[in-house]
Amino acid sequence: IHYPSSGSARIMGKPLGDKGVKSRIGFLPENPYFYDYLKGWEFLDFYGQIYGMSRSKRRAKTEELLDQVGLTHAANIPLRGFSKGMNQRIGLAQALMSDPELVVLDEPQSGLDPIGRKEVRDIIHSLKEQGKTVLFSSHILSDAEMICDRVGILYKGELKSIGPISDLLSKGIT
Predict the structure, then answer these.
(1) If phi over 0 gives left and psi between -120 and 50 gives alpha, with beta otherwise, what is residue 158?
(2) How far apart are CA 59 and CA 51, in angstroms?
(3) Which residues are CB-neighbours of 18 under 8 A, at least 6 positions away?
(4) Considering the chain, what is the average pLDDT of its residues?
(5) Which of 11, 52, 89, 158 could be 69's S-S partner, Cβ–Cβ 3.0 to 4.6 Å?
(6) Contact 144/151 with Cβ under 8 angstroms?
(7) Cβ burial, residue 129 (10 Å; 0-12/13-18/19+)
(8) Stretch 71-81: mean pLDDT
(9) Which long-range contacts (CB under 8 A, 24 or more apart) does 63-68 make?
(10) Cα 91 from chain centre
(11) How far, in Å, CA of 75 to CA of 150, rounded?
(12) In this structure, are residues 49 and 43 in contact, taking their beta carbons and an 8 Å threshold?
């Protein structure tokens, strides 16, 4: 939205905005907007089409992701009937539809009950085990402690510190 006044940035070795790189990134915003008339499976199928996936691959990936996020039972329910937690889950499934190398999750546990929070945490750990990079934002320090290898502390838009959470806690954050 904002154009840089100077400098440059690269992601995955390419300039920001590179379309090839965008297809290798999954994203879940804190407050996503979905077409609420679509059913759960239709929503994921729609995103699979955007990624250029074949019908059979979309169907298989949709079933896999609905199961992974615990929404198989809601596959035929329009998104307008989803709770906040169900929306978080379907949003996470959407972010994973293209099997991305980098997954950016903004407050992915928001609106989830304790079991849902654990399930999302387990999915994030599974992504890590698959060699994927997960950029996870949260205001909840205990979530960061359970999920993150390294933490960056932002204060008023400025990166104040970065490193393993144990190091940051032991030295203090300034």
Answers:
(1) beta
(2) 13
(3) 11
(4) 90
(5) 89
(6) yes
(7) exposed
(8) 96
(9) 65/93, 65/96, 65/97, 66/40, 66/41, 66/93, 68/93, 68/96, 68/123
(10) 8
(11) 35
(12) no
**Prediction pTM value:** 0.87
CA 65 to chain centre: 13
Residue type, 123: I
Q: Which of 87, 103, 97 is nearest to 59 (CA)?
A: 97
C-alpha angle 14/127/141, rounded to 5°?
Answer: 95
CA–CA distance, 174 with 161 (Å, rounded to integer): 8
How does pLDDT run across 125-162, given as a tens digit for each residue?
Answer: 999 999 999 998 888 888 888 888 888 888 888 888 88
Pick from 45, 137, 54: which is nearest to 97 by CA?
A: 45
